[in-house]
Specification:
mainly alpha, 1 helix, about 0% strand
Length: about 120
């Protein structure tokens, strides 16, 4: 009877160990599945962040090229405006010069008319 009790006890103990081992393996399997699911979920976010970063890098490069082109274009426009302003100043200088010449010519014409009128009349003294 004692040996039977011992065998029953050992059998139950072995059954408990097997049950505990089976539950441990199931727990490990479940933990592994959970870990893989979490990693996959995180990897999707990381992959999306990587794709977004690549897009941003591309946009930054494009923006830098466009900003450089705009800067060059702006410098050309500034140069053109400065040249235009200089041309306007020169036109103003030419216009003033022309007015000055016109005034001198009128003065000379008036003097010639005066001399011509004076030489055409007899002397009255």
């Amino acid at each position: 009877m004692l040996s039977r009790l011992l065998k029953e006890h050992q059998t139950k103990q072995n059954e408990r160990k097997e049950l505990q081992e089976r539950r441990r393996r199931e727990a490990i399997t479940a933990a592994t599945c959970l870990t893989e699911a979490l990693v996959d979920h995180l990897n999707v976010g990381v992959a999306q962040a990587y794709v977004n970063q690549r897009k941003l890098d591309h946009e930054v490069k494009t923006l830098q090229v466009q900003a450089s082109q705009f800067s060059k274009q702006t410098a050309q426009w500034i140069s053109m405006v400065e040249n235009f302003n200089q041309a306007l100043k020169e036109i103003g200088d030419v216009e003033n010069w022309a007015r000055s010449i016109e005034m001198d010519m009128r003065t000379i014409a008036t003097a010639l008319e005066y001399v011509h009128k004076g030489s055409g009349q007899p002397a009255s003294s």
